[in-house]
Each structure stands twice: as C-alpha cells, then as structure tokens.
Amino acid sequence: MKYVSTRGRECIEASLAIMRGISPDGGLYTPEEIPSVSKEDIEKIAGMCYPERAAEIISRFLADYTREELLEYAEAAYSEPKFPENTVPLVKTGSNTYIMELFHGPTCAFKDMALQILPHLLTSAMKKNGEKNKVCILVATSGDTGKAALEGFADVKDTSIFVFYPRDGVSDIQKRQMITQRGSNVGVCSVTGNFDDAQTGVKKIFADSDFNNKLAANDIRLSSANSINWGRLVPQVVYYISAYADLVKTGEISNGEKINVCVPTGNFGNILAAFIAREMGLPVNKLICASNRNNVLTDFIKDGIYDRNREFYLTSSPSMDILISSNVERLLWLITGMNPEITAGYMKDLSATGKYELSESEKKKMNSVFESGWASEKDTLDTIKKYYDKYGYLADTHTAVALSVNDKYSAENADDIKTIVAATASPYKFADSVLLALDGKERENSLGLVRELSDMTSTEIPAPLKDLEAREIRFGGCTDTSGMKKEVAESLGIDLYR
Ligand SMILES: *Cc1c(COP(=O)(O)O)cnc(C)c1O
Fold first, then answer.
1. How far apart are CA 5 and CA 25, in angstroms?
2. How far is the CA of 217 from the centre of ligand 1 (A)?
3. 358 and which of 151, 193, 362, 420 could share a cystine (Cβ 3.0–4.6 Å)?
C-alpha cells in the first residue's frame, strides 16, 4: 500500500512518508487505500497482548515494514517498564461509558502512545531509504508533546532531540519533567516569550539553509516529531480496535455491536485515528468531537464552515487550546473522495482568509459520522467533581471536557449506545485545576500539589511524577529567540563559527 499527499498525486512507500513527515507540496501523507478489519480479526485480536495487537494492525498500513520488525518496535514501546501490562485500561462509569485510559506511559499523557513507537518507525525508515545522516528532532512545545518526544527519543541510536519551551507558558510539573530528562542525546532549553515565539524560532531554524548545510557536513539532518507525521497517527488507530476487542472479550458488547467514541480534541489527530478505524470497518456509530472554549471544531462539524477568525482563549485544558487543527486536512481529503485539488483549495482559503466552507454533499458525509460539542471552564470543573463524587473516578481537565460533552450528547439524543471516551492525561498532570474542581480553592501552581491531590483523594501518584522534586535538574538554560540556533549547535557539539 502506498501513500499520497492530500495535495498531490505522487505515490510513495510508507517508510518514506514517515521519514519526510510532511510532503514537499505542503500536504499530509495519507494511505491511498484503507485496509479493513473484520469480525474475525476482532476475535483474533482479542486473544493477543497489546504489542501483538499493535504489530497486527500497523502492519496493515505499513507495507514496507515486516511484521517481525513491527512486533519488535511495539514490544519496545508498549511493554514494561514503559507501560504496565494492561497498556490501555478501560474503566466503566455508569452503565454505558467506558473511559479508555491512554495515559499510562512514561510521561502520563496520551502522546506517549505514538511517541514511544515513532522513533523506531523513523530510524527504521531512514535505513530503508538509505539515509546516512543521523536525525536531530527539533520540537517547540507548549507542554505535553515536548516531554513525550524526549522520552521517546532518549538514547535511541542515531537520533538526538532538542526541545524548546516558553519560559512562562508551561506548568511547573511539565517544566520539571522536561528539565530533569535523562538520556545522552537530549537537550532542553526555555525561550523568553510565549509558545508562538518558540514555535517561530524553531521554524526559522528549519528554514535556515546555512545552518542546515553545516549540520549536513556533520552528517546530521533536522526532522520534526509533529502530529502530522503518519508515523504518529497510525499507532493511534490501534487502541480503538484494541479497546473494542477488549469490550467483546469481557462480554460488555457483542462482536459487531456499534459503539460511539468521544474524543477530547486539539489538533484532530486522535479523533482522525478513530475515523480511520471506523473506515476500516470497526463498528462505530458516531464519533463525538469534544472541544473546550476554543470551539472552532464544534462549529465546523455543526455547519461545515471552518472559521479560525475568533478570539483565542487560554483554558484549563491547554493541549486543546488550538485554532488550526492540522489533521482536519486528512479528513477533508477523505470526505472529498481523496481529491487533492479540492483539499488544497480549502487549505489555501484557510491560509488566505482563515476560513472555508464545505459543499452540501461533503457536509452531509461529515455529519453522517461526526457529532460535536464543547465544554466551558465551568462545565469542565463541574464534570471533574461530578465523576469523582458519583463514580469515584478522577478525570483530568481534557478528559473532563470529553465526559461533559458526551453526557450532554447522550442526554439530548436519548442514545443508549455504549461509548468509549478517550482519557488523554493523568489528573496528576493538571493537579491545580483538579484540586480546584474538587474543593473550590485556588492554589499556586507548584510541584507540591501532586502530593496534596494524592492525600485528598487517597489515590496513588503515578510513578513518573513521584520523585520529580528529587531528580537532578540537567537543563536550566534560557535563551531569547535569537540564541536558539546556538543552543542546538552546542548540544550537537558543532562550532557555528568554523
Ligand atoms: C494532545 C492532547 C490532546 C489533543 O489531541 P489531538 O490529537 O491533538 O486532537 C488532548 N488531550 C491531551 C492531554 C493532549 O496532550
């Protein structure tokens, strides 16, 4: 099976799509054909452990990787000590809701699901394509991605990684997680300014041909670990199929029974993976797209008009604070019948005017699958409290957005279909908001809140967050945007002035 850009017609192998990340025409690589998953496959998958499930499903998408290779990568990514034996637990609350916990990896956020296996897919792709250079991953992060990428690439052969974060734009826990990162091939530095400053700085480094030539002379090539890379998307298809198989295995549903899936959405990667699983034939009724106050996707799914011209809000679910959700482009391409001209046209409108509108038939297609809703800040905190009081379930702010939207949806639609709700972060990562939801008291954001949340709820602090305060700070540096290039060069041991 080959891959094509959403904006062009060139056909390439999966490994090259993963190595390139983004197509030279600006489009996103997507498989030209969606493989299928049958009832019998579900039976078979139900008898496998998670790494085997991952190899089984990913191999249907990545034709130029062998099954053995994929199993080796999946075992390295999803076994102990990276993940517990039950890689993705399902927790039942109420009679119809199953919370799919995607946050039991090394950084307690769902991005581990993709970023633990991506380095293996990427280094293997480079070998398959005869790339001799080593890869240096460059990341600008507003929180979760940076740490998950650091953990994924730490000590992976022939790679290095450098992460920039905005000095005043991440929580104390997120910052401490990053600056104490282990590994001999990692670097972290804060940038004065906000996330956009860090992001713009990184983009400048990618576009700096002198600098890239200097790196090439040292056998190094820059690359990114963006969520637009197909190598980050395909591992996410796995857990939807895996969760369905688990529900069949435990007798919660019958094989073939339709379920709903509700996803707290930012860049649209996670819910797109659910859409792909549905296209493969997984029995999914509706995909419910949940947003916070930055509800551009709610409106898009309701009336087919994507309009980013609106105010941007900082919320308690920061990983969903986003106005341009990149992976929507793949949805457009799929619902336009894989039409690169129409897709490229919408993307052109989006960058020129911040806006585009689907045709009637495209709108109809989207609405036959997607539902949408959003949760205010109050809804989010109320939902954390409700789930804790009613079910003893402690949700993080992102998960709470989805639970709130799903509760509203099922009340309004008198729909008693069983629903999987994606839980994307440990509540301990957002302890300040979770504590506020539980007792109504505002607190200074600090590392001590983790202990406080544990004491209040008698729940265990996840191991990766337990001894944060005791860990050695390795990367205390800060630079302004003009010094970013120098930081990367120093970390790679390259003299910029020679
Ligand atoms: C990244 C992230 C999301 C959004 O996922 P997308 O794939 O970008 O839609 C939601 N919750 C958390 C905790 C995240 O880190």
1. 8
2. 37
3. 362
Helices (H), 392-470: 397-413, 431-439, 448-457, 463-466
pLDDT of 443-486, one tens digit each? 988 889 999 999 999 999 999 999 888 999 999 999 999 999 99
Q: Is 266 in the pocket of ligand 1 (CB under 6 A)?
A: yes
Cα–Cα distance measured from residue 198 to residue 5, given in angstroms and rounded to the nearest whole number: 28
Residue 119's nearest CA partner among 150, 141, 147 is 150
Catalytic residues: 111
Distance separating alpha carbons of residues 168 and 481, to the nearest angstrom: 14
**pTM higher than the cut 0.90:** yes
In the reported structure, the alpha carbon of residue 100 is separated from the centroid of ligand 1 by a whole-number distance in angstroms of 14
Among 6-15, 196-205, 234-243, 424-433, the minimum mean pLDDT is found in 196-205
> In terms of DSSP bridges, do strands 134-140 and 478-479 run parallel, antiparallel, or are they unpaired?
unpaired
pLDDT in tens, 217-238: 999 999 888 888 999 999 999 9
Per-residue pLDDT band at 125 (split at 50, 70, 90): very high
* 424, 426, 429: residue to mutate for ligand 1 pocket, most atoms within 8 A of CB: 424
